[in-house]
Design goal:
Layout (H helix, E strand, L loop, with lengths): L2 E6 L7 E10 L4 E6 L6 E6 L7 E4 L4 E6 L14 H8 L4 H8 L9 E6 L4 E5 L5 E3 L3 E5 L9 H11 L7 H8 L17 H7 L9 E11 L5 E8 L5 E8 L1
Antiparallel strand pairs: 1-2, 1-10, 2-11, 3-4, 4-5, 5-6, 6-7, 7-8, 8-9, 11-12, 12-13
């Protein structure tokens, strides 16, 4: 997952609103959003290579989402980062208690950002900086650096979400995620991948022959615990493959 913007407002009629794009090589096998047969009550897409996920929710409203941290060095961790949200969704620990368990073994994984929520708290962990905290109410953005890093697509997504959250509609959230405008070179981050790749990765929605946005996901959670989840899947060059809607 390479772009997540979300609003966390515990006292609001819609306490959690999420719009997220998962970017990945098209060749990596994945399963679309569904209820997991080996974990009833977990609703998520699935990485068929390592078995984990990038975003999901449970029947009871436990939520988790993951982004990788961009790093040109060879992968340092031996374990798949996708197991981190999957294990939270399957488990019973509170959000911040789960984050606390990760601080001791974060080095087992290559760099990641993790969001987990249990309906009472939404907690964040950055494995590179070691930052772990319960988030206060607000609108946030996350890509492949720190929380609220000033990357153009993060700033754009946060601003766009702020216009929608008083009456959030999943289709409008997906429209937010479809923006494929490439920011001006002067505003792009320099993460060491070269300007051509920075341009490719600079838009909210990424499309090329080999790598791009594989899934766009919208999640709206209501104060009574009911939720709506809408996912749109894509193939090479951004071709739309399908759309799945679930409610809990």
């Amino acid at each position: 997952m390479c772009l997540i913007t979300f609003a966390w407002r515990p006292e609001h009629a819609y306490p959690l609103v999420v719009a997220a794009n998962r970017d990945e090589f098209y060749a990596r096998p994945s399963a679309a959003l569904s209820e997991w047969q080996d974990a009833p009550g977990v609703f998520a897409g699935r990485d068929l290579e390592a078995g984990g996920t990038w975003l999901g929710i449970t029947h009871s409203g436990r939520f988790a989402a993951l982004t990788n941290i961009r790093d040109l060095r060879p992968p340092s961790g031996l374990r798949s980062r996708g197991e981190l949200p999957a294990n939270f969704l399957r488990g019973r620990l509170s959000a911040c208690d789960y984050i606390e368990t990760l601080t001791a073994n974060a080095a087992d994984y290559s760099g990641f950002n993790l969001l987990v929520g249990d309906g009472q708290q939404l907690c964040y962990f950055n494995s590179i900086s070691g930052e772990a905290r319960a988030l206060s109410a607000g609108v946030y953005g996350l890509s492949n650096a720190d929380l609220d890093s000033t990357w153009p697509k993060v700033d754009y997504a946060k601003h766009a979400l702020a216009q929608l959250i008083e009456s959030p509609q999943p289709q409008a959230l997906l429209e937010l995620l479809s923006d494929n405008r490439v920011p001006d070179d002067s505003t792009l981050p320099d993460t060491g991948v070269g300007i051509a790749t920075e341009r490719l990765l600079g838009s909210a929605f990424i499309a090329s022959q080999t790598y791009g946005t594989r899934a766009s996901t919208a999640l709206v959670v209501q104060a009574d615990g009911h939720w709506q989840l809408l996912e749109r899947s894509f193939g090479p060059n951004g071709a739309q493959l399908g759309e799945i809607s679930l409610q809990g």
